[in-house]
Amino acid sequence: MKHLFLFSICILMATMTFAQVQQTNSPAPQTAAQPQQRQQQVSPESSEWYYPVPPKIQPGVGTKPPSDAIILFDGTDLSKWVSRNGDAAKWIVQNGELVIEPGTGSINTKEYFGDCQLHIEFKSPAPEQNTGQNRGNSGIMLQSKYEIQVLDCENNPTYVNGMVGSVYKQSAPLANAYTKNGEWQVYDIFWKAPRFGTNDELESPAIVTVVLNGVVVQNNYVLKGNTPYIGFPKYAAHGRMPLSLQDHGTKTSFRNIWIRNL
Ligand code: MG
User: How remote is the CA of residue 77 from the centroid of ligand 1, in Å?
Assistant: First the structure.
């Protein structure tokens, strides 16, 4: 009787051990509760936030400035500008246009800028007799150092990284979106300034997107450096800098210039 009892205990223990091994080796059973629990952990609201609230602004209509833009030229005066040498700007304001007075030098904004959205319209002199780089040449010098080319490019062959819409001497435009000599051309430029470290080393290069007459001509182009006329681009540490417009000896006109800090 005693032996029979011990034998029964052994059989029971062996059965329990086998059942445990089976349970350990089996994959966890799927239950309906698991997907439901996951849904509770990551709800639609889990990836939504409400603060800080973006400022409410009034967008401009067409090419007009939005309500938070800094107006750099509205057709009336040069109060936001100085000559590059610090003297009063000597370009001419007439008929609501800002016209380059050749030989008086480039002009700078009094205010300094970093990341920005810039709107600027230009018109090449008409009729134009010159060719190549002498036809309606000017330039939009972002942070005074990085040139987006202004050039009359209606039937005017030149080196492609010096065309209108180029990052001068660095990147040819994706298309020639210039219309006609004597017509207003519209630039919208989106600028991410370069970043420099505490030892003046380059941390991240400048990036620019340029839209000419509604056409993307530079698509997040990463700049190699500044815009020297002779030689190759390189970076030198700087902070916020004025926007500059280039005097390249032609009577190019500008209008409707506004900028937004980003
Ligand atoms: Mg130029």
Answer: 23
Q: What is the pLDDT of residues 196-210, one digit of tens each?
A: 999 999 999 999 999
Residue type, 187: Y
Q: What is the residue extent of each domain of the chain? A: 71-261
Between the CA of 150 and the centroid of ligand 1 the distance, in Å, is 6
Contact at 8 Å (CB) between 179 and 126? no
Q: Quote the CA–CA distance of 219 and 211 in Å, as a whole number.
A: 9
**Spacing, Cα 234 to ligand 1 middle (Å):** 18
Give tens-digit pLDDT for 24-39.
Answer: 444 444 555 555 655 5
Residue numbers of the chain with a pLDDT score lower than 70: 1-40
> Ligand 1 centroid vs 66 CA: distance in angstroms?
28
How much distance in Å is there from the Cα of 137 to the middle of ligand 1?
5
CATH 2.60.120.560 fits 71-261, yes or no: yes
What pTM did the predictor assign? Answer: 0.83
Q: How far is the CA of 138 from the centre of ligand 1 (A)?
A: 4
Q: Measured between alpha carbons, how far is 261 from 136 in angstroms, rounded to an integer?
A: 29
User: Using an 8 Å Cβ cutoff, are 217 and 207 in contact?
Assistant: no
